[in-house]
Sequence to fold (429 residues):
Amino acid sequence: MWLQREIVLRPRPRGFHLVTREIVDALPELAELRVGLAHLFLRHTSASLALNENASPDVRADFETWFDRAVPEDAIYWTHRLEGDDDMPAHIKAALLGSSLSLPIGAGRLALGTWQGIYLCEHRDAGGPRSLLATLWGEPASQ
Amino acid sequence: MWLQREIVLRPRPRGFHLVTREIVDALPELAELRVGLAHLFLRHTSASLALNENASPDVRADFETWFDRAVPEDAIYWTHRLEGDDDMPAHIKAALLGSSLSLPIGAGRLALGTWQGIYLCEHRDAGGPRSLLATLWGEPASQ
Amino acid sequence: MWLQREIVLRPRPRGFHLVTREIVDALPELAELRVGLAHLFLRHTSASLALNENASPDVRADFETWFDRAVPEDAIYWTHRLEGDDDMPAHIKAALLGSSLSLPIGAGRLALGTWQGIYLCEHRDAGGPRSLLATLWGEPASQ
Fold:
């Protein structure tokens, strides 16, 4: 069984956002798979996906703080400045975190750990809606 | 062919640990696949998986040194401090390295390069045992 | 349908190089898949693959600048120095960016976003040719 579907994530402010529920709700076919994989792919170069702590909002705030310090907007060495001060740092952050997640499916659901949630990492000040292409494949539960 | 199995990695001290042999030994079904993929997924948010140099222990020690400097425990900007000084840096390190690896299978084995080994990156001082969910799929050798 | 093929990328100087066209041209079988995945796997520990902005060469130059500052060659803390000053930083950079990409296939092509291109990230001064193992699987268009 194969399924491929675009999920459009609504615009969010710069920062790290928990989107697990939104993505799972858009993929009811997860329930049909006994075992399989879900591949989530962000079709952008200035936002990223990550898997991390799903409980405390202060964890997500600390992510933003650390990444802003590690990849500073006002560094004198950036040469690519055409698209705004937040653009080049956004590309670096997106590459560090990556634009996709491969998640195991077991018994009809994402087999995440208790504390794992899916983050949309929005690295632009006004990134707009983000297109996520989800691909699921695996062995149906009825086999 | 699909296989999904939990592998419990015994507790290890903070640092970067080579676990290739332990994982391969837990997946004898690798030998049955002519071509396929192995997905290794750590169900935690403060440890990670990476692929890197499998020979020199000093490479793994230098990994620990670099990551500890890049994500310092004593930074004044952390707000999430409830779970200990090593917790928030562990989350950042885990996101940078990622919680999963997708590895190609060819001719019944992981098709790694000569110098590539699987690292368990333990970012907590006392992370305890770590649950790794392995998923294999592919085309059996007998087809 | 499964396909696995080695693609040898010619030696490139240290830096970030756009290799989308080279990889797609080596995988004409992409056209046969209605939906699927492409897994690109670099069999090395001192080079990496990333997905990022495919238009401006200055973006790729800024990647090199940022990574060279984030993982400095002349740091006093490196203990693994046997293989040259560029070796240990190359291992760290490779782990940060990762040695593989999983890319969705839709309607016979890589379903990348408009601005996404595949980077070969060469972290050594003279890394030589790089071996990439490509694995494709999915549902043929003719089904």
